[in-house]
Sequence to fold (314 residues):
Amino acid sequence: MLIIDAPTAQQALPFPTLIAALRRMFLTGCEVPRRHVHQVAAIAPERPSGVTSLLMPAWNARYYGVKIVNIAAGNAALGLAGLHSSYLLHDATTGVPLALIDGDAITARRTAAASALAASWLARDDARHLLVVGAGKVARLLPEAYRAVRAIDRVSVWARSPLQATTLVQELCGEGMDAAVSTDLAASAAEADIVSCATLATSPVVFGQWLAAGSHLDLIGGFTPAMREADDACFMGASLFVDTEEALQKSGDLLGPIERGVFEATDVKATLAQLMAGERSGRSNASERTVFKSVGTALEDLAAAVLVYESQRA
Fold:
């Protein structure tokens, strides 16, 4: 069994290759059971919150993989990250373990790649200006991912922490991008062709009245019912797309507006699988405003893990 660390996994997942792999996997499909959620009770009295553990399996004819995501709310007090994950890939025929891969690297890169894949169908062909809302692990990957599908030549970054936004902009400039910190989120959103949000917000940070006609809004956070990045107006008059139907059951960005009658579940134009298969169409004209909501799927993890494993076996 191979043991593959984060740097090796990241190197094996260049965005053009990863986006193509996601496209193929959404087209061919795989088995994706509902994720398991377990509360691991804390034994140590100083850690009363314990650990929330997510198990995300997926398989096709050749490979069977499981991602384990552990979330420990009390880790900050110990100077540790609150989330850790690992990915175990098996041979689907024999059950033999093939590789243990750093799960954080897989998750971050496949998440950014899924947004770029959606944008290849939903963002205008001439989209140039990307606004990134957030400055965390996924947010810092978005410019590179989007540049694999659109000719992005300007990046604005807004984050609640000006220091984090500045640090990310310095990194992007060091990579040769034209990047700048946004100090006025409303103005930047009004100017941007693509607004991509990757935050842990529990109340809206982007408002529909800011968004220009023809823009594309990408919502990556809001993957639980208690989380939300966009207000109701973001969906009014827009064409809505989701990564999977599961988004309608998990995302606070969607559950709230549906409950308030802003739109119905049947108003969703397409999932990624439907777009890849040509069953539904994406953007229809240059003035159409589009919204893509993702919550992540084990299908994406499997596609990324297979890429990593096969790169090491080549």
About this structure: The chain is about 30% helix and 25% strand.
